[in-house]
């Protein structure tokens, strides 16, 4: 079921059709290295239960990224920690680590679609994200190309292999988004 349409993508309500692929990504080393909430293994049942809980909450929008022409599952995009009082939310995406011609720009387009929805329909004013730094600096750079700006560095945000990890925080506001779209 399509929730948001973009030029080449349908951002769809999660279904069990793509659960196996989604769970495979969640359990992969590459995702664990970029998303701190994926440090523990998840079975298909655990993942589906989590998805259902998140869909029932009023603090997260979770959507599958699907190709408009053939419905190929390309990833997941999410707005979480939605705070209507502060008018803020966090954005996140998960997609295959290796990109091909079909999914190369899908994350960018999906993020633009959900940002548009956040600013126009939810009246959110600020969307933020975080990436481990320096190992995931390319994520931050790609987001800066979309209009995100650096907000700061979180030293010792997580410990990994008995070493502190640092993360880069970045954000985009509704007014920055409007200027960048032009």
What does this protein structure show overall?
This protein is of the alpha+beta class and 182 residues long. It contains six helices and eight strands. Strands 1-2-3-4-5-6-8-7 form an eight-stranded mixed sheet, sandwiched between helices. The model has no long low-confidence stretch (mean pLDDT 88).
Structure at a glance:
The chain has 182 residues and is α+β, with helices and mostly antiparallel strands. The protein is built from six helices and eight strands. The two termini are 30 Å apart.
Low-pLDDT stretches are none
User: What percentage of the residues does DSSP assign to strands (E)?
Assistant: 35-45%
N-to-C span? 30 Å
Overall morphology:
globular
What's the tally of helices? 6
Q: Which series of helices and strands comes N to C?
A: EEHHHEEEHEHEEH
Instruction: Count all strands and give the number.
Output: 8
The Rg value, from CA coordinates, equals 16 Å
In what order do the strands lie side by side in the largest sheet?
1-2-3-4-5-6-8-7
For the largest beta-sheet, the strand count, sense and barrel status come to: 8 strands, mixed
SS-based class: alpha+beta
Q: Helical amount among residues, as a percent range?
A: 25-40%
Determine the oligomeric state from the structure. single chain
pLDDT averaged residue by residue: 88
């Amino acid at each position: 079921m399509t929730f948001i349409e973009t030029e080449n993508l349908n951002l769809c309500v999660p279904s069990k059709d793509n659960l196996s692929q989604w769970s495979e990504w969640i359990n992969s080393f590459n995702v664990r290295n970029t998303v701190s909430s994926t440090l523990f293994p998840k079975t298909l049942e655990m993942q589906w239960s989590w998805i259902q809980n998140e869909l029932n909450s009023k603090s997260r929008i979770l959507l599958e990224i699907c190709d408009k022409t053939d419905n190929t599952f390309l990833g997941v995009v999410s707005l979480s920690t939605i705070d209507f009082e502060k008018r803020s939310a966090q954005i996140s995406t998960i997609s295959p680590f290796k990109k091909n011609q079909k999914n190369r720009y899908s994350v960018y387009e999906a993020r633009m679609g959900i940002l548009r929805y956040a600013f126009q329909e939810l009246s959110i004013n600020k969307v933020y994200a975080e990436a481990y730094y320096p190992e995931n600096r390319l994520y931050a750079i790609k987001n800066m190309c979309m209009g995100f700006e650096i907000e700061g560095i979180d030293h010792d945000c997580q410990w990994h292999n008995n070493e502190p990890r640092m993360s880069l925080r970045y954000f985009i506001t509704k007014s920055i988004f409007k200027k960048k779209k032009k």
